[in-house]
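Data deposition worksheet. Section B asks for the primary sequence of the deposited chain exactly as it was used as input, without tags or linkers unless they were present during the calculation. Section C holds the resulting structure in token form. Section D is free text for depositor observations; keep each observation to a single sentence. Incomplete worksheets are returned to the depositor.
Section A, Depositor: J.P.
Section B:
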Amino acid sequence: MTTHGGFEPVFCTVVPPHVLHRLARNDDPALSGPARRTLVRDSELRAARSVTTEFRLAAAPSAKAPSDRPLRTVYDAGHGTDLPGAKVRGEGEDPGRDATVNRAYSGLGSTFELFLKAYGRHSIDGDGLPLDATVHYDRDYNNAFWNGEQMVFGDGDGEIFVDFTNSVDVIGHELAHGVTQYTANLTYYGQPGALNESMSDVFGSLIKQYTLRQTAAEADWLIGAGLLAPSVTGQALRSMKAPGTAYDDDVLGKDPQPATMDDYVRTGRDNGGVHINSGIPNHAFYLAATALGGFAWEKAGQIWYDVLTGGELREGAFFTDFAGLTVKAARERFGDGGEELLAVEKAWERVGVRIL
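Section C:
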């Protein structure tokens, strides 16, 4: 296990609190009820995660995966909240009748494969960590999360959100929080927290692109496509290509993500806007990846991975710190004067982040 500056796993959800808060204020109890229950549950889980972290109560994994294969286990919470739940599928077992279980199992494998094949990383901790996931968590639970030890998926309320295993990028997003946990360990507040969220969006998108064998030009660059119910006016939770355009709905409101520093949001909510301001580094990655073309995990993704795992990224890094390290990584891996260095520099320039 590689960590920098301490091991501080955090509780990370894919649906931002500001979305759930808006739903919780809705006059329709079919919309507000599930959102309120999800917010209460998330608050309890966040508090439990804090205690577990402070007193080092998390159990060490009992097994390691073979170096070139994942070790996956999917559990069913049966709409309860006890984790992990009943085991329903283990590594190498045939698919069952539950499509949610099968999607979770497949998504764990896709994440493992991207990190192994593209970057030589053995599971999310780099040392064969077993990949565990629980499905059918709670009733009408409108979220999915990484709790520092495993993945958990709700089924959604069917009104605003549907099954959270529907999007492989969401599975990858949450597991990528584990990669950050075991490497740079970015503080989950303000700009370092937004970088933490952005790293998960970057690798979540890359996992989807890798699975579909899409080039940067072919990818949709959406996070959470397939999560919104048919009645919602929107495509996804976030757009890396065009932050602020993922949804514009009478119930959900308008996607608040900025694409550049000109629209940076200063707020004390959502840990200082970690799910909002992540749109800025997200957009920088999209610009660099599409400028380079081809498969995004090969050049832009490699540069971002080098920074995340290289040991120089501080826990409290700001956007300017991260941008400077990506320029350094591009130069070290691909050389001076190449298209990679130029693409990275121009991407940060276009989103208004200075390179130190």
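Section D:
The radius of gyration is 19 Å.
The CA atoms of residues 117 and 224 lie 24 Å apart.
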